Amino acid sequence: MIIYRYIAYQVLIGFVMSTAILLPLFSFFDLLDQLDDVGRGTYHAKDAFLYTAMILPRRFIQIAPFIASLGTVVALGKLAVNSELIAMRIAGISPLHISFAPLSVGIALLLIVAILEQFVAPQLQQKAITNRAIALEQSAELGKNLGIWTRNEHNILRIGMIVHNKRAADIEILHLSAEDLLLTHTIAEYADIVEDQVWELSNAVIRTFHDDGRISVSHASSIRWPSFVNPEDIATLTKPPESLSPLELVRHVEFLRSTGQEADSYALALWRKAGGAIMTVAMLLLSVPLVFGSIRSGLSNKLILAALIGLAVYLLDQIIANAGLILRLNPALVALAPGLMLIALAALWLRRTS
Predict the structure, then answer these.
(1) What Pfam families does the annotation carry (predicted)?
(2) How far apart are CA 266 and CA 251, in angstroms?
(3) Cα separation of 340 and 281, whole Å?
């Protein structure tokens, strides 16, 4: 129908305008944050600008709900100011039917977000984090003096630092019996990954705990250890959960659970990606009755109200996510519930407006 194509076109323009305003604004804040580190190590102003540019896809994904909300308000608000919405209502087109046009544009936005989320944003964000850490002379993936820990049924592994893709430093391995008694404690200066499941430990010190209480110590310049993690698992362990693609998160959650480790933070990050899509739809649908509910007021008032609603929803979503992680609630419920509740609220509001 011509009217729906017209509305969709106006909403598309609104989305472009919102992106042109919000993305540079949030990127400017990112740049200010990075400029604080200029001068440390070999981190220069050009590195700050490069970092900001490389996380643009991630920032676009994060502000997609706001783009959907403000873009819809801009488009429908303009139609309301020009009395075009009133003409549509007189013609018998309800707000519910009008919402189908913005929704179609919103689905296209979600498709772009999905492509960026899987194929663009994770790679660029991880590269940006690594480059920044190297320039600041920090451990690129692990964070200074922190290391990472992982385990399976009979082994606990600590990696102090990733030197490059095939070498790790400051290695600690605890081997346990079936009764969870410590059998050996191995410390190595380096570990070279010679095969996916085989590591070569250099300058290793092995402490063996005997049943009679004795502890024997041996040294080895090089020994081979059958690892239970492959390079891909290590790379995933050392990256922030939100920087991983959905497929990486699915794989890593399965790995953590199969080795008896805590996976809630990664599961929550995975479900929040789906929750972000639902939230985008929810914010878009909420914007439609918002415009109709104040059809006589100015466009600026609608934009301010939409911005305040967006800010409140964002803060509430963050609070719910962190509270859910602390209280160990179901990650899917925590991530999806806010968006689903807002969609239900928008549906009721649209029905009353109609």
Answers:
(1) LptF_LptG
(2) 10
(3) 9
C-beta separation of 142 from 129 below 8 A = no
Taking the model in full, what pTM does it have?
0.82
- The label of the residue with tokens 């200029």 reads 38
Tokens of 231: 């390079």
Token duo for residue 226: 């059958």
Give the tens place of pLDDT for each residue, 19-63.
Answer: 999 999 999 999 999 999 999 888 999 999 999 999 999 999 999
Residues 6+ apart with CB under 8 A from 127: 54
Q: How confident is the model at residue 259 (pLDDT cuts 50, 70, 90)?
A: confident
Phi, psi (degrees; rounded to nearest 5) at 125 = -65, -45
Measured between alpha carbons, how far is residue 283 from residues 52, 125, 230, 265, 353 in Å?
26, 26, 41, 25, 17
Q: How far apart are CA 275 and CA 316, in angstroms?
A: 13
**Which pLDDT score, from 0 to 100, does residue 90 have?**
85
Q: What is the pLDDT of residues 149-190, one digit of tens each?
A: 888 888 999 988 877 667 888 999 999 998 989 999 999 999
pLDDT band at 303 (very low <50, low <70, confident <90, very high): confident
Hey, how many other C-beta atoms are within 10 angstroms of the C-beta on 90?
9
Beginning with the edge strand found earlier in the chain, give each strand of the sheet holding 155-164 in spatial order: 148-151, 155-164, 167-176, 182-195, 198-209, 215-226
Contacts of residue 319, defined as CB under 8 A and 6 or more positions apart, other chains included, come to: none
The per-residue DSSP string of 196-255 comes to TTEEEEEEEEEEEE-TTS-EEEEEEEEEEEE-SS-HHHHHHHTS-GGGS-HHHHHHHHHH
